[in-house]
Design brief:
Helix content is 29%, strand content 28%. It is α/β, with parallel strands linked by helices and 113 residues long. The chain has a single domain, classed as Macrophage Migration Inhibitory Factor, CATH 3.30.429. The strands form two sheets. The protein has a four-stranded mixed sheet with strand order 2-1-3-4, with helices on one face. Helix 1 runs antiparallel to helix 2. The longest helix has 19 residues.
Length: 113
């Protein structure tokens, strides 16, 4: 079960969220064994500062993966995520940070995987 949480300092409207949802759904398959079928997404809007300043557009993307993933695949996914966010929301790729977390235990439906 992958989970992608996209935090931005501006509101992403519904049509752009749908475009990101589709793009993330395709991109997650870069990680072997992951697919849109089990992908969960969240979008958050909150104040953000970078280099001590409040910039017009920033994004922090957290990608949580059940189990381990190849670093090369993660690097490729980061490129896809940054490119997609730039295309859909016009955030400069240098203002997008991506964090990965590999999770050993993940629960759903009352039990753990």
């Amino acid at each position: 079960m992958p989970f992608i949480n996209t935090k931005t300092n501006f509101e992403i409207d519904k049509s752009k969220r749908e475009e990101l949802k589709k793009g993330y759904g395709k991109a997650i398959s870069i990680i072997p064994g992951k697919s849109e079928r089990s992908l969960m997404l969240a979008f958050e809007n909150c104040p953000m500062y970078f280099h001590g300043e409040e910039k017009e557009k920033l994004a922090f993307v957290e990608i949580k993966l059940y189990g381990k993933a190849d670093r090369g695949a993660m690097n490729e996914l980061t490129g896809e995520v940054c490119s997609l966010l730039n295309k859909v929301t016009d955030i400069d790729e240098g203002d997008i940070y991506v964090k990965y977390e590999e999770v050993e235990v993940w629960g759903c439906g009352g039990s753990n995987f």
